[in-house]
Model the fold of this input.
Amino acid sequence: MRNFILTVGCILLFAANVQAQFTVKLMATSVATRQNEPIYVSGNFNNWNPKDEQYRLKPFGGSRLGIVLKDMAPGNYAFKFTRGSFDKVECLADGRDMNDRVLLVNTDIDTSLSIAGWKDDYPQKPKPYTASPQVTVMDTAFYIPQLHSTRRIWLYLPKNYYQTTQTYP
Done:
């Protein structure tokens, strides 16, 4: 009887230490433009490597691309699709950045996703210069000891500041 209890105890202890492994299937059913370039999945499961060949999507019939991630431990996983770099990362259909996609893995998952756009299809527009002509940069590295950092300092000067002898407080 004591051997039976010892054996059952060992089995329960071993079973408690074994963690389930799951399979995650990610399918890209529609991909915005540039469909002939390789697409990768990058996330916290591969140290956010944007061009990891082990995480390259493969054809899954028709125009679908996909990848099967095996032996995933339970947990939350964040990821995005890239075309080999984060300059070519997926974005929203209007070019805005999107949040990471998140999957809670606690069972086998088979999911279909859509890639609405790619960041490099929407080049950044330069920000318009909105400062008045009277704005002057006094210092580009003004040290602030209380903050242990430097800041750029701008001054707004009157229009006739450099032509007048008038002093300003």
